[in-house]
Amino acid sequence: ESLMGNRYAALLAVSLPTFVYGLFRFSIGIIVPQIENAYNINDSVMGVIVSISVGIVGVGVFASGSIAGRYGNRTTIILGLLLFSSSLALVAIGVNLVAFSVLFMMASFGSGLIIPTSYAVVASILPQRRGIGAGLVSSAYNLAGLVGPATVGYLLLYYEWNTSLLFIPAGGVAAVVVYFAVIPSTAGDTPPAPKGQFRSLLANRTI
Q1: How far is CA 101 from CA 4, 44, 48, 50, in A?
Q2: How would you class 112 by CB atoms within 10 Å of its CB: exposed for 0-12, middle for 13-18, buried for 19 or more?
């Protein structure tokens, strides 16, 4: 029962990073008009910033393999979450356009570190049901599409656009704490072949 409880906790933990990233990605469209007004830029400039940020996510995805190979998947995910959350938190404080653009790119790079490594970790949790694990991670991202825009839209009624984003980095910090506490340090770092791999990791994990 304890192992089963640990596995459920691990599945929740491994779903949080993509959920937090989804909150941002699905909510950014709502605040674009406010960002343009705040920095006195037009749709063309904002479109360039968003397009480059999407490319930076791809760079993060590509780099995640090398970083995970050297430091492990859990460390890579936590690093991505910290970079993503700290960058958005600084944006929420209020910065100029150049700083906003740089921080936006840093958050995008951090989110890129999260995506492939999350699938590797969930495969170690459910080695015989990797399709279900991948679906869980993807569903967490899509669930954020329901939660994020509604929350940001509500907060915009009472706060400025940057302040309205604060709940996303707060969620990122919470995800880091849960991830660090629940996910074994070597989860996902070896091929998910043995059926009881995650159980043995839980039994012999190092923090």
Answers
A1: 44, 14, 10, 9
A2: buried
Rounded to 5 degrees, φ, ψ at 126 are -125, 70
pTM of the full predicted structure? Answer: 0.82
Residue in this structure with the two tokens 């090398």, named with its chain if needed: 66
Distance CA 33, CA 140 (A): 27
CB atoms within 10 A of CB 186: 16
- For the beta carbon of residue 37, count every other beta carbon within 10 angstroms: 10
- Using alpha carbons only, give the angle 155, 135, 113 rounded to the nearest 5 degrees: 65
> What does the alpha-carbon distance between residue 114 and residue 81 come to, in Å, rounded to a whole number?
7
What is the C-alpha to C-alpha distance for residues 64 and 112, in angstroms, rounded to an integer?
7
Q: How far is the C-alpha of 77 from the C-alpha of 158, rounded, in Å? A: 33
Q: Please, what are the averages of pLDDT over each run of 10 residues along the chain (207 residues)? A: 61 90 90 90 91 94 91 91 94 86 94 91 80 87 92 90 88 91 71 49 48
The CA distances from residue 177 to 18, 71, 172, in Å, are: 15, 18, 9
The runs of H, that is alpha helices, within 72-166 are: 73-93, 97-125, 130-155, 161-164
CA distance 79 to 204: 23
